[in-house]
Queue: 4 jobs
Job 1
Amino acid sequence: MALEVSLLSGWLPWTLESVAVIALLVAVGWRDSRWRTRKLPVIAIGAAAAGLLTARVVLPAAGVTDPLPLSVWLWFGVVVGSLLVLIVGWNAPRRVTGHAATARTVNWRHRGAAAVAATLAAVVCANGVNQFVGYFPTVGDAVAGIENKQVPGEVSLHQLTTKPDPVAQKTGKLVKITIPATPSGFKHRPELVWLPPAWFQKERPALPAVEMIAAEHSKPENWIRIGQAVQTAEHYAARHHGAGPILVFVDPTGGFGNDTECVNGPHGQSEDHLVLDVPQYVEKHFGASADPDKWAIAGFSMGGTCAIGLVTEHPEAFRHFVDISGDEAPNTGDEAQTVANLFGGSQAAYNAHAPLTVMAKHGPYPPITGQYLDGTEELTHIRVAREFIAAGKKVGITSTLTVQPGGHNWQFATQAFSYAYPWLADQLLSA
């Protein structure tokens, strides 16, 4: 099916790139010597300068901290270059075979090709970012995400029934919920809960729970659509007679571009939502255990940073964590930018959310367990994880680091969570 075509590899990305290059070559054309020796070099320099300015100034100022691959910037340059070819070459003379260069204007073939090149290059550039982070693996995923389609298998709270359900007793149920922002007041999007098959048993125990936190630019369902968290949990449940924790796919940001890093501040009371609103609601409406030994945080990228941060700051609420590719501390740029953006300029507030500082100040913790998972390409994150492990060991936090092939993208997060989940479920169910 067309919707199953990969956006990360295969024929579609290659075709888009090839057609974009051909269109650019047609748009540039041969034309006259003035075009070739004067205007084209200026266009090339302009495209390169625009790329350099965006990479070094615009994105850091916007708080984008992860470096994008060179291919993305090359295609960004093609976009700018194509637009400059269209503008500068709109009335540029072209070479006419058998005659000297004339004042005849460039024809619509060049103009149309420049427009096509710019459009396709923009698509390729955007998909280059997508290939880097793995956000939309297929065309269907992109369509579903853009159109905000319902997650497959999702039901509303009103549709949920506690009566015997043969399907739910095999695979569990995914429920869309709206958690009241009480007491946090945090404005957030609808969230989701996956109830394991054990939840539908006649004698239902007070099950453990895991808050699932995605990356910075994300939606609550990303762990489901991209990270395959529900499939991972279902595989575990199938091997353990339906047992498993409740998975809560939370919204820590309230919007795609609102980076809260799971702290209270100018961007909203995200921390209170995750620590207070969510557990209270899940315990009340789904009968989850109120024992902090049976609560965990698992996250990727920003979510990984949130996982270690929330557990070290709130051991009264969470006692287990899975930190996949998390940072050393909340991060929206360099430290000065982060202090200004997330904490209203308060250095003390920043320090109160830096895990190494928090652990040292807190002293001995109740038994806490965790896992750090980083890709072989994430050398900084590996170093940070080792520092956390050493610091945690001094205060009663038992944790390990697993390094697997991969980089900072959803493909790595998916495999890392699949690896860590059985351990996490065992920790929660045996607590």
Note: The radius of gyration is 26 Å.
Job 2
Amino acid sequence: MKEYKVVTLKLGFTNRVQKLEDLLNQYAREGWALKEMPTNWNAIVLERDKNR
């Protein structure tokens, strides 16, 4: 079974890519994987196994 998390992004205007990378790495350490990211960069959907 999977569980999902929606994270609203508040990255600002400077260093957007680096902030996104740091955020994704932080969640990856917790077992989350990127499932979907809309083209307007306002939120991301993360997925992980519920029974891990």
Note: The beta strands are 2-8, 33-36, 43-49.
Job 3
Amino acid sequence: MTVWSRDGDDLLLSVRLTPGATREEVGGVWTDDRGAAWLSARVRAVPEKGKANAALIALLAKRLDWPRSAISLESGDTNRLKRLRIKGGGEALAYGRLSTIIEEQGEAS
């Protein structure tokens, strides 16, 4: 099971976001009660007026070394579980940088 899927040249990423954290990090996999896998992420920003979503996009752009403008929120605006689209991120990110980030934190629960 993986936290991403391909949509043409784009990468669709499933993320479980924890806003208001003491430190920002991304890595590890969280599995929901249905068995779906989500990339774990934490940001310092509070979940008000899109601040946490913007912080998540900035964090992913930095960690993946990908343009911030190429990452957008597909769903989950006010939910902890989010789907992001990374334009042009298909194979380059899925099998390289993203895999490394997931493995860095190990399995999260």
Note: The two ends are 15 Å apart (CA to CA).
Job 4
Amino acid sequence: MTQSKIKLNAAEDVQEFVNAASKCDFDIDIYYNRFLIDAKSILGILSMDLTKVLTVDCHGENKEFERTLQKFAVA
């Protein structure tokens, strides 16, 4: 399992992230504080507070999805 910190600033960012996550054949969770959402759920992510830095847990590997994570990564 790998963990990354990301920031999604707009609905277009959420859509791009969910599209990339949906192509993966493993579970991906996204959360902040105690809110845990399936990263393949666009409505779930849009219901989160997007002003916060989000944590992503990947339970597998996919090079294309890793590039998407790097695009939205925060230091």
Note: The chain has a mean pLDDT of 94.
